[in-house]
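Consider the tokenized backbone below.
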């Protein structure tokens, strides 16, 4: 056990629990629990979005992917960053103007039917759970490396902590944990990047030159094709990364934590700058790990390369930097999983329980209680699923969640705001077909099936050849929404669409 790392773990956990305690005293109503009563400023929400987005996949997964696969690993950094242009220009403002607490609120603003809200909530819970698996895998590997605790118990520890944050502190606690974590992560990544660059005499060109001989890939390290050998698979991955963020429930609900659409847009701009700087620094993390830790040691620690960043910190900064970076990685995971649990719990309590089961008659207190129980249920389910994905790279796992989000949610968000003829049948069909097709293709893919033992969950030939289903499932989601609309005998409400257009762009309601 690394004693220093353990002490820093306890300090960070203790500090976040203090935040949760004070937040719990302010969390009385559903607005407090779901959206922190829309009280965050643009810069606060920008840092919180960055904290929510820079997950274990970003810090642990990308560093490992770049270290092991070179240029191909950087695809993730590019895709994750460019995705925010889609969020900024298409999603942020209409979502804030039309919604209240959840993604389903936005869609229900146009299609006020139980089945639309129910399917939207189902998508939110499914995507959040899928995304959470990646975070728990990273957490399990990290704690196992540092404290020598078995993977199973490591995942359970993180699951308990993330449940505590949400159950007691709601969105206020989750937001401030994410802000603190984002600041710590940026600081830790900056320190490592400066040290790595110093070892190359502060010359980026010298760094690139030396990387041609620093790894087993030699000169190919800087070329594409080391991991993604199929161009179609590469395109599929990048489609999922660029379009997926705009459909991620735990990112979308962050736009309800500010007072209006203008502040929502400002928060996206802040987040984009923070995230952009961070992803540039992932180059130094990956290159540094490849050069100063080495392929064999990275693989020996974790087959998927998830421990490359902490091992790099140890190699260039000794025990203290190793302990600090590991503790920051732990805080990263706690913050992100808290946001994921909250998005899934909000969907259950506000949409399923509040609007479908109780038909809008549930009190604030009843909804908050339902959300807290839902948090516990989502956490247990995610822990169980994470036990089957122990040896998968967390950045790759997250890319699968992005594909599901882009297939199931993005078509509906776009058509709700921009297509006058779009109707209830199209919304339900698009969401269900997008969700089912993407999950089915993931299950039939090489991620789950492989002829070689221990390379996937099951031994056998995959029926779907691509590792990421985005290039197939995303068009299916759009086509299903269009087909459902055109084949339905029910016509869209033109007056309602006119109201939606005005509200989405101005925030003014009941204007027509």
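A designed sequence for it:
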């Amino acid at each position: 056990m690394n004693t220093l790392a353990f002490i820093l773990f306890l300090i960070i956990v203790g500090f976040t629990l203090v935040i949760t305690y004070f937040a719990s005293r302010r969390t009385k109503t559903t607005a407090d629990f779901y959206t922190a009563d829309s009280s965050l400023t643009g810069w606060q929400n920008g840092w919180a979005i960055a904290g929510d987005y820079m997950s274990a996949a970003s810090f642990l997964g990308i560093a490992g992917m770049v270290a092991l696969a070179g240029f191909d690993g950087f695809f993730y950094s590019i895709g994750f960053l460019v995705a925010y242009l889609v969020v900024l220009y298409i999603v942020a403002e209409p979502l804030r103007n039309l919604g209240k607490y959840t993604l389903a609120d936005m869609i229900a603003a146009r299609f006020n039917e139980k089945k639309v809200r129910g399917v939207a909530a189902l998508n939110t819970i499914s995507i959040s759970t899928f995304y959470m698996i990646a975070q728990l895998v990273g957490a399990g590997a990290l704690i196992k490396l540092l404290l020598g605790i078995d993977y199973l118990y490591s995942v359970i520890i993180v699951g308990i902590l993330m449940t505590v944050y949400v159950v007691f502190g709601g969105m206020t606690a989750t937001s401030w944990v994410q802000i603190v974590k984002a600041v710590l992560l940026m600081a830790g990544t900056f320190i490592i990047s400066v040290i790595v660059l110093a070892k190359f005499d502060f010359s980026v060109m010298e760094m690139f030159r030396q990387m041609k001989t620093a790894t087993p890939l030699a000169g190919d390290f800087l070329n594409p094709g080391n991991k993604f050998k199929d161009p179609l698979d590469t395109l599929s991955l990048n489609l999922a990364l660029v379009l997926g963020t705009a459909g991620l429930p735990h990112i979308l609900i962050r736009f309800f934590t500010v007072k209006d659409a203008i502040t929502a847009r400002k928060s996206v701009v802040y987040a984009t700058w923070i995230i952009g700087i961070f992803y540039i620094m992932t180059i130094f993390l990956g290159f540094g790990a490849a050069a100063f830790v080495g392929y064999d040691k990275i693989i020996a620690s974790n087959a998927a390369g998830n421990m490359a960043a902490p091992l790099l910190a140890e190699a260039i900064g000794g025990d203290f930097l190793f302990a600090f970076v590991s503790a920051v990685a732990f805080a990263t995971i706690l913050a992100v999983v808290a946001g994921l649990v909250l998005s899934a719990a909000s969907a259950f309590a506000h949409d399923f329980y509040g609007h479908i089961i109780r038909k809008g008659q549930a009190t604030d207190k009843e909804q908050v209680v339902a959300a807290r129980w839902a948090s516990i249920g989502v956490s247990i389910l995610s822990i169980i699923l994470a036990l089957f994905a122990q040896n998968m790279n967390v950045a790759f796992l997250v890319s699968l969640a992005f594909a599901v989000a882009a297939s199931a949610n993005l078509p509906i968000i776009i058509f709700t705001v921009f297509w006058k003829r779009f109707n209830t049948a199209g919304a339900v069909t698009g969401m269900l077909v997008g969700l089912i097709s993407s999950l089915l293709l993931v299950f039939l893919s090489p991620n789950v099936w492989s002829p070689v033992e221990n390379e996937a969950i099951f031994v056998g030939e995959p029926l779907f050849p691509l590792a990421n289903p985005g290039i197939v499932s995303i068009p299916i989601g759009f086509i299903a929404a269009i087909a459902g609309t055109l084949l339905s005998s029910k016509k869209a409400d033109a007056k309602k669409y006119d109201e939606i257009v005005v509200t989405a762009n101005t925030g003014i309601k009941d204007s027509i």
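The first strand starts at residue 449 and ends at 450.
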